[in-house]
Write a structure and sequence with these properties.
By secondary structure, the chain is mainly alpha-helical. The protein has one domain. It contains two helices and no strands. The model has no long low-confidence stretch (mean pLDDT 90).
Length: 47
């Protein structure tokens, strides 16, 4: 994942938390895997 996409994901997580919607690790894994799939890269394993 590119540095820009990592920063965007982090900002999204922080924004959601600020609004009172804490994301579960499985939610973040799903988002990352979706991004990686769109890039044609290998998915991450379980954290």
């Amino acid at each position: 994942m590119t540095e820009l996409k990592e920063k965007s994901l982090l900002q999204y997580i922080l924004d959601m938390d600020e609004r009172g919607f804490s994301l579960r690790i499985s939610d973040i894994e799903d988002i990352v895997n979706y991004i990686l799939e769109m890039q044609g890269t290998k998915k991450i394993g379980k954290l």
